[in-house]
Amino acid sequence: SLLPPQIITGKARLAGVLGWPVAHSRSPVLHNYWLRQYGVDGAYVPLPADPESFVAAVLGLQAAGFRGANVTIPHKEAAYKLADVLDETAKRAGAVNTLVFREDGKILGLSTDGGGFVASLEAASLPPQPRTRALLLGAGGAARSVAAALQDKGMQVSITNRTQERAEALAEALPGADVVPWSVWEQQLGDFTLLVNTTSLGMEGGPDPLFCPSLAQATPQLVVADIVYVPRVTPLLASAQKHGLRTVGGLGMLLHQARLGFREWFGVDPQVDDATQEYVLNSF
Ligand code: ATR
Fold first, then answer.
1. CATH number at residue 75
2. What is the ipTM score, two decimals?
3. Do the domain assignments include residue 2?
């Protein structure tokens, strides 16, 4: 490749991703690609920490001079509780996926997942349409941050989830959101301009890699998005394409959510372009 070699001197800026497990994370490949592309003296490493060790791990990274870290499953709520200062999105999402160790010693918590998702729609020239309805499959942490970001763009958000109580709890935490029963969402698809799968359904190695609901009721306006990015074209997206619908895969969200953290830690706003997508994809 034409990428210059990585520079890691005694002054290197350091960041990483805290998760348990963390071996599947694509974030190290992505951030180190950008570090090389922009000639930044720095490194980004996987940081496996179990839930009992999470707080000690964060304080240890801070003590060792790290700039910050990404936080992934299962630590996003613990990171929310631990942060000294939260941005507005993190407050609404109730979760933190990016920690920044500020020079004043305070730990800043950001939620960049939802904003990254919206940025990936915008990059695909399919921005959320204000005052129209989005249907989210799932009611976990990812659903919560995506829902908050879509509401910020003026969309009316509906949640559907296998476990109805979780959908209701999420709708309650997000004023204006409502719930569609899991058993009937396919029939109600005609009411929506955006469908987002925020569950692990359709993911390779997940609970149901063949997940492919009926899209028969969709109107031609429907945009179908998936936050799953392995495989890049999930059965849901393949089916949507067969119906002539426009689709957005999950890789863009991964890249766009990473951008904000990179900017905070390494002082460069990195490009999310085709070459970046290609490089990350080829690392699978
Ligand atoms: P995350 O924080 O990444 O969103 P999570 O909180 O574990 O992860 O949420 C996973 C989502 O996938 C949930 O909405 C879950 O539905 P339940 O709340 O009913 O558990 C959904 N999910 C996982 N496996 C599923 C399956 N086999 N069928 C339907 N939904 C499933």
1. 3.40.50.10860
2. 0.96
3. no
